[in-house]
Amino acid sequence: xxxxxxxxxxxxxxxxxxxxxxxxxxxxxxxxxxxxxxxxxxxxxxxxxxxxxxxxxxxxxxxxxxxxxxxxxxxxxxxxxxxxxxxxxxxxxxxxxxxxxxxxxxxxxxxxxxxxxxxxxxxxxxxxxxxxxxxxxxxxxxxxxxxxxxxxxxxxxxxxxxxxxxxxxxxxxxxxxxxxxxxxxxxxxxxxxxxxxxxxxxxxxxxxxxxxxxxxxxxxxxxxxxxxxxxxxxxxxxxxxxxxxxxxxxxxxxxxxxxxxxxxxxxxxxxxxxxxxxxxxxxxxxxxxxxxxxxxxxxxxxxxxxxxxxxxxxxxxxxxxxxxxxxxxxxxxxxxxxxxxxxxxxxxxxxxxxxxxxxxxxxxxxxxxxxxxxxxxxxxxxxxxxxxxxxxxxxxxxxxxxxxxxxxxxxxxxxxxxxxxxxxxxxxxxxxxxxxxxxxxxxxxxxxxxxxxxxxxxxxxxxxxxxxxxxxxxxxxxxxxxxxxxxxxxxxxxxxxxxxxxxxxxxxxxxxxxxxxxxxxxxxxxxxxxxxxxxxxxxxxxxxxxxxxxxxxxxxxxxxxxxxxxxxxxxxxxxxxxxxxxxxxxxxxxxxxxxxxxxxxxxxxxxxxxxxxxxxxxxxxxxxxxxxxxxxxxxxxxxxxxxxxxxxxxxxxxxxxxxxxxxxxxxxxxxxxxxxxxxxxxxxxxxxxxxxxxxxxxxxxxxxxxxxxxxxxxxxxxxxxxxxxxxxxxxxxxxxxxxxxxxxxxxxxxxxxxxxxxxxxx
Length: 762
Fold this sequence. Notes:
Layout: H1 2-11, H2 16-39, H3 42-57, H4 65-89, H5 93-110, H6 115-119, H7 121-132, H8 141-161, H9 170-191, H10 199-221, H11 231-254, H12 264-284, H13 293-313, H14 325-358, H15 362-366, H16 377-387, H17 394-416, H18 421-431, H19 436-464, H20 468-488, H21 490-508, H22 514-536, H23 541-566, H24 573-600, H25 609-634, H26 645-669, H27 685-699, H28 705-745
């Protein structure tokens, strides 16, 4: 029994499918019996039965219980609207197909705006599919709504009383622990900077490394669904890359060959960053903070500004006979502190978003309203939607493809005059996946499962005859199996659903095993529609789309870095930098959705998740580096003056050299050329930059405060660009793996035909 329990838990973590199945097995027979036996209305009974699937089996909202109830009530209300509209449209075949396309696209694409809408998309679609695929006049609307509302009224107490899933967020807990351990590491480094004792620092480094490793392992082990992340969850996911990047920054600083004396303002920045990280970890761990995170963000910003002023006041160009690296070396500690502070600020910002998002009301979550940074609830929805209004968006592809498949299934069902036409549409919905190959595999598994269910159900019907008492007794068991089976495999899910429907329809209208034969015919038709649509529209799959989004993210982030490096030396560059920043942010959003789609797609991933995670971390590191450079040049109007034109042009040339590498790597990831070798350190770069600075300062006839500030910004920007160059070493091998698979077997190569076809486990 322990082995069976472990096997089930591996496929159904926290018994989520079992909870839904048990809840449905209790509620569905009860409301179906009330509608069919007490009320005696077949339409009410049918809509109550399928409404049970929609509200209890296909939908399982998360969050606190009041939010779950609010989301459940919203689903009931939305279903009433869609049932009414679908019934009115069902009288004309072409109107029904067109309305199915519009509703299908809007419902599927709306998930990019709101996780609540995404989680309910299948349930909402079912409330439209059932009435639009079963033509009836307006007179049937009251009965259809009565069946939906009957199960809706029963679902509200069921959600509360019948085994609600607990709230657990293992990734958030791991991120909180990593923040706390990194804070301890920074505090230890500050406390032991000058006393020569390294034991405490070594222990703190070991603990922080272990915490970051645990965070990465937990991230790769968490089965994300494309529709399963709230705004708070997305913020926590972004934290993973930022925490890993902070860990890289700290290791690079520890490995620096030269460690000149550290200014007290640098230690103040490190201390403020440690305090901010500690409070960020507490906020993530839901420990009530004694003061706001914003206060500590402001403390870190003040410490950073004080450090920048101290660094600027201390700028002295080395003599012509001194090594050119002397100036860069003297500014190295302050640069590392600036880089560190910006990474910690980004982490704290995402923690603040995560905690604020969790405090939103349910209607704010349903509308996709962001907790901060936008002027209205519609603005944030527009931002996310516009990020995906782009030809390579995975979400846009799936929304259009799903809408066409559903509309085609409705059209075929009406024109063919099928006995149970909505089964055709359900068959198309259940097997459509993100590429033609996967759709074909699921179609075969769906038909196989339906055939197995038909055989089992027919045997039961032949054994029991049309004895309604026995069929009623089997109905709860069949519903439980139908709810649990999809967690085991797609084929088992289809089989369980077929058995449940055989029993259900033999209770409504005894017809024996012929009901199962009709279902096989209709599901086969729906599968064929889905397969044709999957083959005709973007048959590349999530893996190929992920490659495209990775390529675009690297290209946009490198363009962003180049744009902010040009700020202050090129006319109009501030506007160009702001535009590049928005394009990089949009590309990062699309990459996030493509990655989760890749994880959800069935089949063994031939490109290891660790390689994909390394490429994602590289995107985050490149974007954070560009953000840090942008903070230097775009803050306080500092880009309005150019005191060192020669030095800035030298810096732009060095930046282009690095960003051109990323542009070439971005092309290689999609199979267009080889991945270039990482660039070696340009030993003469510091010398050329210092000589250009010296010439600029001589032309400026002195070293005033503005020139000093510009000098520090140039040197720090050069260091940031070199950090982006060093990042190439960590993304080269994963990029080569991606390019090798893409060039060897084509667009769908990242998914192998072999591998676990059952379930969605990774």
